[in-house]
């Protein structure tokens, strides 16, 4: 992340932005957990329509 290279952390605003990422508030953590739970409940794979006859769907690969 080029924003957080040492040469870019020369003012209070940049340091405050980094601090927000490294030490989120309780409200921010709660919102992130709720967002993650909503995504998990919705499912991880996008919905796919029917495939035309004779065509195969490529298999997912592990990263």
Q: How does this model look, in words?
A:
This protein has two helices and no strands. By secondary structure, it is mainly alpha-helical. The protein is elongated, with a radius of gyration of 20 Å.
**Stretches with pLDDT under 50, minimum 5 residues:** none
Strand proportion, as a percent range, falls in under 5%
Radius of gyration: 20 Å
Count of DSSP E strands? 0
Number of helices: 2
Overall structural class, as computed from helix and strand content, comes to mainly alpha
Overall geometry comes to elongated
What are the secondary-structure elements, in order, as H or E?
A: HH
Please tell me the overall pLDDT. 75
Distance between the ends = 21 Å
Region (Disordered): 30-63
Biased composition (Low complexity): 46-63
Q: Which descriptors apply to this entry?
A:
44% helix, 63 residues
How are the SSEs placed, and which strands pair?
Blueprint: H1 12-22, H2 26-42
Short description:
This protein has helices spanning 12-22, 26-42. It is mostly helical and 63 residues long.
